[in-house]
Amino acid sequence: MLNKEVNERLCRVGPEQPMGRALRRYWLPVLLSSELEPNGEPKTVEFLGERFVAWRDQQGRLGVFAEHCLHRGTSMQLARAEGDGLRCVYHGWKFAVDGQVLDTPNVADPQFKHRIKGRAHPVREAGGLLWAYLGPRDREPEFPRWPWMDLPDANRLVTRHLEECNFVQVIEGLVDSSHLGLLHMNGLRQAGGTDLGFAQKVSSMQHNLAPRLEAEEAPFGFYYAALRDIQDDQGSRTEARVAAFVSPCIVLNPNGDIATFVVPMSDTRTAFIHVFWSQTQQLNRDPLRSRHLEFIGLTPQVLDAFGLTEDTLGRVDRPGPHNNFMQDRQAMRSGESWSGMPGLIEEDVAASVSAGPLRDRANETLSASDIGIARLYRALLSCADVVEMGSDPLGIRRGVDWSQVAGTNAVLGARRWQDLLPQRTSEKEPA
Ligand code: FES
Ligand SMILES: [Fe+2]
Q1: Would you state the pLDDT for residue 423?
Q2: Which class is 147-420 in CATH?
Q3: What is the mean pLDDT of residues 158-174?
Q4: How many whole angstroms from 418 Cα to the centroid of ligand 2?
């Protein structure tokens, strides 16, 4: 339970907010690489409560600009794409992707353009994603190199969808193992009958609805374990599923080959990025790609139908709070569906979004099933606190070896779940 003041501190992401300042200390993914063509149209993106224009020049270099032109604020969304730069349509000032001013045709002094600089932010491209850093330039952290970034594109499947609520309540669903056997009951049942590796790893969760939950702090956030005593036709055993929360908005799924990024667009809108990867399989090639997306519910058709894309978010003809998410009550009564939602993603979206655009935590009732939630609040609030005190937030100050941070799962036997972690995270000394 959090009072209103603490809840706002936890959730608000704008540049003047404590959490907004903490979030700006990290490299965060903004778009998929595939969303920007060389010299294509500029694309407006909402990110941490501000608006930007992203664009890729003819050479493939990426730029993320403040939305409004340096001169007198016309939107760069309207700008002309001219190969080496974006040219504002109002007075023709032209900006390269790094903010260099290439031309100011309405100013006679040819030196003027050298005295000014466009508002472009540091960017990177890695792992099929475009990343930006919005924080103070002298505090720019090392770019996190995750092992999956080095795989060929064919072995990595990256998706992005949007949800109309605050980012914290979306992350909550990712450190909340006990909802899987209930909310996703139908999906888990189907998972038993498919040969998809992803599905097989989660199927047995349906046999224990109340896992024991434990968590342990880590330099980047925390590990979170769900322990299920399972009895089925294969005998009795304890299965452990261990997720890693990586500050400020990453959860590494216990399947071991899924990373999820929950990126705040505004206080009440969130971009949800999935990265699935495989060392051996070409997940990003059909037919595997389509089958994978279909099982999870991330096909373009599903995202469009449920209003989870830029074009459909918040539309009244799509499922939402105004029409009870078009829940199929008939299917619930007949026993065909637990939730009345068509699939896993729709179930998660309805659960998160129906709690309200920025959910009230003053009246919640946390239980033993919510250990991950309590840890999440603590980890995020600590980031806001330390940044406010002038220090570096989790995962930045001490540096982390990202190749040693992962989600994992196994039958425990005589081991403890902590023994499953790739290696205990090595920490570099403070600089
Ligand atoms: S407002 Fe953009 S060039 Fe004048
Ligand atoms: Fe879920």
Answers
A1: 64
A2: alpha beta
A3: 98
A4: 24
Position 176: which residue type?
D
C-alpha 358/C-alpha 172 separation (Å) is 13
Place of tokens 């930007």: 52
State if pTM tops 0.90.
Answer: yes
Q: CA 358 to CA 324: how far, in whole Å?
A: 18
Q: Where are the domains of the chain?
A: 28-132, 147-420
Task: Classify 233 as helix, strand or coil.
Answer: coil
Q: Closest-lying ligand to the alpha carbon of 183?
A: 2
**Spatial distance between the Cα atoms of 381 and 393, rounded to a whole number of angstroms:** 10
* For ligand 1, atom 4: residue with the closest CA: 91
Coil, strand or helix at 317: coil
Find out whether 408 and 243 touch, Cβ atoms under 8 Å.
no
Would the pLDDT of 430 be above 60? no
Which residue, by CA, sits nearest to atom 1 of ligand 1?
A: 72
Q: How far apart are CA 394 and CA 26, in angstroms?
A: 10
CATH number of 28-132: 2.102.10.10
**Side-chain half-sphere CA neighbours of 10 within 13 A:** 27
pLDDT in tens, 357-378: 999 999 999 999 999 999 999 9
Give the ligand at the shortest distance from the Cα of 86. 1
Specify the ligand 1 atom closest to the Cα of 74: 1
Residue nearest to atom 3 of ligand 1 (CA): 91
Residues with CB under 6 Å of ligand 1 are: 69, 71-72, 74, 88, 90-91, 93
H helix runs in 283-370, sequence order: 288-296, 300-305, 329-334, 344-353
Q: Looking at the CA of 88, which ligand is closest?
A: 1
Distance 349 CA to ligand 2 centre (A): 8
